[in-house]
Amino acid sequence: MSEIQSGKELCDQFFETLKKREDIDQDIAALLMALYSEGKLTGNTILEGLKALRADEEDETESQT
Fold first, then answer.
1. Residue 64, class by beta-carbon neighbours within 10 Å (0-12 exposed, 13-18 middle, 19+ buried)?
2. Would you say residue 24 has pLDDT above 90?
3. What is the pTM assigned to this prediction?
4. Cα dihedral angle (51, 22, 19, 10), rounded to 10 degrees?
5. Can you give the residue ranges of every domain in the chain?
6. Which ranges in 1-65 belong to alpha helices (H)?
């Protein structure tokens, strides 16, 4: 009989597998894992982080042209 996992264990397992998935942008996976490990995983912090990633990507694209 398998052991029942706690909610934290399930979340830990989920976020650990994010970095192994090739179909998920690794910058976004890193953002989500960092927010989760810092205890700051909220809708607002996710949106702020995604906006920052987008701005960084746009800055990178502009500097290459």
1. exposed
2. yes
3. 0.80
4. 100
5. 7-64
6. 7-18, 26-37, 43-64
Q: Which tens digit of pLDDT belongs to each residue from 26-60?
A: 999 999 999 999 999 999 999 999 999 999 888 87
Give the pLDDT confidence score for residue 65 in this predicted structure: 67
Q: Cα separation of 62 and 37, whole Å?
A: 32
Instruction: Read off the tokens for 8.
Output: 């934290």
Long-range contacts of 24-32 (CB under 8 A, 24+ apart): 27/53, 28/53
Q: Is residue 19 within 8 Å of 33, Cβ to Cβ?
A: yes
**Amino acid (1-letter code) at residue 65:** T
